[in-house]
Amino acid sequence: MKITVTIFLLTLICTAQNLFAQNEFSRQYNLALKFYDEGKFYDAVTECKRLIFFDADSQYTYCAYMLMGKSYKMGAKFSDAILNFTNAELNAKTSDEVFQSKIEIIRANILRRTTDRALQLLDELDDDKNFSSRTAGINYWRGWTYIFADKWKKAAVSFSKIDSCKQLEKLCRQVDDDKYSETFSYLISHFIPGAGQIYTGNYVSGILSLGWNVLWGYVTINSFAANRIFDGLIELNFLWLRFYNGNLQNAQKFAVYENQKIANKALYFLQFQYKGLKP
Amino acid sequence: MKKIFLLFIFFFTTGFPQAVKQNEINLFSPANIKKFADYLFCSNDYLRAALEYEKYFSLYPNDSVKFKIATAYSKIGDYDKSALMFDSFTKSSELFPYAKMEYFKSLFQEKNYFRLRSSILNIDSINNFRFAYQAKELYYYSYLFTIDTLPPESIYLAHFDKTDIRQIKNFYEWKTDPPHKSPLLAALLSAVIPGAGKFYVDQVADGITALVATASLGYLSYTDFKAGHYFRGWLFGGLAAGFYAGNIYGSAAAAQIYNVKIQFDFENSIGVFINAKNFFTPGINFCK
């Protein structure tokens, strides 16, 4: 009886020790994770690389590549991040892991502003029957892709397909409404020089532009009227048309600039005040 | 029977996990650190490789690892560190001649030509230095990068390999007689004939434009004054004067830009050549 109890106790102790003994690779992954959490992304990448190099059975390869990708992303090295997320996708063992890695690739593409690639990947996910239950997630990132591509109307359409994204939809619609039409600003300046600048709220520039065009228009027409054709041609070419053309470019430039200000204000809000997931 | 069964359970539950554990590897053992460093080095991840090799080197110092650390630093452009490490090899080391050449290469890349030359002159004191010829090539090539007077052509070219002579000769001629344009002459030419300075610096289209614009505006100003149109006379006169003065200044600036451009092209060419030649350094391939 005594021997039986002794053997039983020994078994219990040794089994517990072995069961709770942490696997070396798991420890290594946690070390990398710790560096990542501490913002030491370079060290996190080093430890992930070490893990992948020694993990012959690829137990942690997927996780390590994902963590490496995230570390590179935090360092704004988006191309390296995408490379690692792609490696993670290649080492994914479940459809959930495939989806997660693909979404990370899309998010890095959004930040890298390679919009076409992000949209292409989102379309692929949309067409894949394995992910038919994840439409909301796909539309969510499609919306963000459009935001970063400065296509706020399309972003609003994408967010409108998700019930929980009404705030984002409203914001995108607001930005789209607030923006000036670059084409309209350019066109009205053809008819009334300076009108495009006034339309975008740049009154001084608009009036100055109108003044220059009136002055050189008058001088040019006056020359033609006095039969000084060569004078008129030179004034037309070097003065009036130069200011007229400058007025057109300026009108468009102001519209772009004002639109950038509106978009940046919205992006600032999204960066610092929006609480949901961001690229 | 009961005891046998319990013993079986004991050995199975304790022995099996132990066996698994034995297969576990210590990722931070010196051997594995070196293995990982070698992998990083051959994947061109030189900074990480250098840091890993340094960990190993602190436990097991040896010349081969030291050479790799220095090479890694050289690859990432930390020439100060690489030069220091390559210079620390003793003559007894098998890698000494290679390290010496890498040391010269680091000094060259650091643009420390003065130290490079004095160091290369010192190798004469080393008996039968294996790469003395290549070191001399590097010594003379460095003259192309400095403002120091070059040795006479025949002496200079005698130090280079025959296959490179033609290219080196071109560099030598460029260095001794660079095809620069004079900014003063360009400005003077444009003062005499508007646009002529631009022609001189090979900007023909700009030259024609300057000539036509200045002449047309000058002519208009003249005829306007003659016809009593003073506003237009002053207007075109002002524009003509602006074009004329701008062209003189522009011609001098164009000559300076021309000189900078050809200097840049020359430095680019000599840089490409020396890189292609690996700085006349033999090098060691650790990633075969």
Describe the structure.
- The complex is a heterodimer of chains A (279) and B (288).
- With 279 residues, chain A is mostly helical.
- The longest helix of chain A is centred in the last third of the chain and has 44 residues, at 229-272.
- In chain A, α3 packs antiparallel against α4, α6 runs parallel beside α8 (135-148) and α7 (115-127) runs antiparallel to α8.
- Chain A is elongated, with a radius of gyration of 31 Å.
- Chain A has three domains: 23-112, Tetratricopeptide repeat domain (Serine Threonine Protein Phosphatase 5, Tetratricopeptide repeat); 113-177; 182-271.
- Chain A contains 14 helices and no strands.
- Chain B has 288 residues and is mainly α.
- Among the domains of chain B are: 28-122, Serine Threonine Protein Phosphatase 5, Tetratricopeptide repeat, CATH 1.25.40.10; 183-268.
- Helix content of chain B is 72%, strand content 0%.
- In chain B, α2 (30-42) runs antiparallel to α3, α5 (79-86) packs antiparallel against α6 (96-109) and α11 (183-192) runs antiparallel to α14.
- The chains are: A mainly alpha (279), B mainly alpha (288).
- The A-B interface holds A 3-4, 7-8, 10-11, 14-15, 18-19, 21, 23-24, 28, 46, 49-51, 53-54, 219, 223, 228, 230-231, 234, 238 and B 2-3, 6-7, 9-10, 13-14, 17-18, 21, 24-27, 32, 35-36, 39-40, 45, 48, 51, 216-217, 220, 224, 227, 229, 232, 235-236, 239.
Short description:
The complex is a heterodimer of chains A (about 280) and B (about 290). Chain A is an all-alpha fold and about 280 residues long. In chain A, about 80% of the residues lie in helices and about 0% in strands.
CATH topology of the domain at 28-122 in chain B: Serine Threonine Protein Phosphatase 5, Tetratricopeptide repeat
Mean pLDDT of chain B: 90
Name the CATH class of the domain at 28-122 in chain B: Mainly Alpha
The Cα radius of gyration of chain A reads 31 Å
* Pair of chains with the largest interface and how many residues each contributes: A-B, 27 and 33 residues
| Biggest pleated-sheet summary of chain B | none
Using only CA atoms, what is the Rg of chain B?
34 Å
Structural category of chain A: mainly alpha
CATH superfamily of the domain at 28-122 in chain B: Tetratricopeptide repeat domain
**Helicity level of chain A, as a percent range?**
over 70%
Q: What is the percent of helical residues of chain B?
A: over 70%
CATH architecture tag of the domain at 28-122 in chain B: Alpha Horseshoe
Question: What is the tally of helical segments of chain B?
Answer: 14
CATH class of the largest domain in chain A: Mainly Alpha
Approximately how much beta-strand content do the residues of chain A carry? under 5%
Series of H and E elements of chain B: HHHHHHHHHHHHHH
CATH superfamily of the largest domain in chain A: Tetratricopeptide repeat domain
Arithmetic mean pLDDT of chain A: 90
